[in-house]
Every structure is written in C-alpha cells, then in structure tokens.
Amino acid sequence: MTLLTSDAKGVYVISVTPFADSGAIDFDSLDRVVDFYFDKGADGLTILGMMGEAQKLTQAESRAVAERVIKRASGKPVVVGVSAPGLAAIGELGRAVMDMGAAGCMVTTPGSLRTDPQIHTYFAQVAHTLGADVPIVLQDFPLSTGIHISDEVLGRIIDDIPQVVMLKHEDWPGLAKITRLRKAEADGRRRISILCGNGGVFLPEEMARGADGAMTGFGYPEMLADVVRLSSVGDMDRAQDIFDAHLPLVRYEQQPGAGLAVRKYVLAKRGAITSAALRAPGASLAPEATAEIERLLARQEKRLKELN
To answer: What residues does pyruvate bind to (predicted)?
Structure first.
C-alpha cells in the first residue's frame, strides 16, 4: 500500500463514477476509465469526490466503487473522498477504504462551521477519528462549501495536525494563498503537498506559484499531465500553449450544474465510459449544447495539430 505523503506531486485525476442509463453503477466502465486515466498520464486517482457523484451513492456502493478502483489501480495511489455530515460516517468509510489499500482520505468542511476555532477543531476531530496513520487531504473549496479557511487557520492546521499532508486547493481567487503557503514553508513551516482543482482553469498560474500538480477532472486528462510536467521543468511557454488549446473546453466545463454532463459526454465519446448518464437528479445535455461541444472539440483538435 502506497500512502500519500507531503512530497506528492503530479496529477491525481478526479474520477467520474460511470452509470448505466438505468442509473446502476457500470463497473465495466469503471475499470475502463481507471485504465484510461493512467494511460493518459495520471500519477494517481481521487474517487468519490463531488464530481464523482459521491453524494448519490449509498455507503455500500461507495465501498464497492472504492474496492474496484483500488484493485484496478494495481498499487498506484488512490485517494478516497470520505466527507460526510458526521464523524461516524467519515470514520467508517475512511477505515474501510484504508484497509482496502487507499493512499489517503480527502475531507472537506461541512457547511455548519462558522468560526476559525470550529474549523481547526473539526479537522483535529477528523484526524482523531481516522487515526494517526491515515494521510488526509484537506479540500479547501469555498465556492461549494461556503466556508473560507483563512491563511492563519490553515497554518494552525498544518502546524497541529500532521496527518494533513496535502491541500486540495480550490479557493478562488486563491493564487495568493499558494504564494503565502510556500513563503511560510521557506520560513520554517512544515511542507505539505498542494494539488489544485477547479477544473484546472488556473493550472499554469498555480504551477508557477508553487503548486505540486493538479487534483481535478477534465475530459482530456493528458492536458493536465502535460501542463504539470512541462511546468515542473520550467517550460512554461509550451505548457501555456497546450493549456490554451484546451481552454475553451475547460471553460465550457465550468458551467454550474452542467459541467459534469459535459465531461461525461466527452469521456463517452472517447470510449472511456459507455454512457454519459448522470445518476438522478442530474442534468442532461440539450442538442444545442452537444453541438457546441462538438464545435469546441473540432477546434481543439485543429489547434493541437498546429502546435505539434
């Protein structure tokens, strides 16, 4: 079992959960999409996140998905989202997936938190519930949770809770937060890994600010891998060119309520999953949206050929 550490780098793709048109989990497509992500350059996977429709799964289904993905990954790191309203559910699922061989657990802030001490106490409780040997990814996603974690509170969490080894950075605007975290580390604070989300829409800038990679999803995960790899060796112009070629589709995926349907459409078109279905309740694409995506894909292909 490969455990997540504060030195983790690269791309941990947020995996979709494939469903049949009936709404049942499509485990054959789950196997296929895991292979697809790694074939396209992923260093690890993150499952049961918000874009994995985790909130629509039963506890038994969550365990079944985790077991299948961890087995299919064949030793490559898999982070499992275990966020839940209560600590008991977090502990139950977290311990189960760690026993299966997960690399760590991702947890975000519940909407009930109101003060800085509450935020700090919550993650201390999560760490105690999961256990001292479980690496934690702290998902900082105020656009979804409504909870803003200040630099000061985040610093105290890093100082006081060693199980927190990674920040999934999704603050927006949040580039300055990355800069301040890296400065604090240069001044002596413990290092943590920073992987960035938000669909990769700021990925080149985040890498330039000191991020270690991406933890997000996209219909073309090879773009994420290329941008992270090129940025890591200082070839920012080439990284930006590749990013810019995909940017119209990245932008289109950012539509609230429709982005996952777009992503699943592209993944199905590429053969990674059989059906683009979302489990109810979930949006479906109108014919006009499908036509727009096809136009974006054609233009993207043309631009990538020009770059090559």
So the answer is: 215
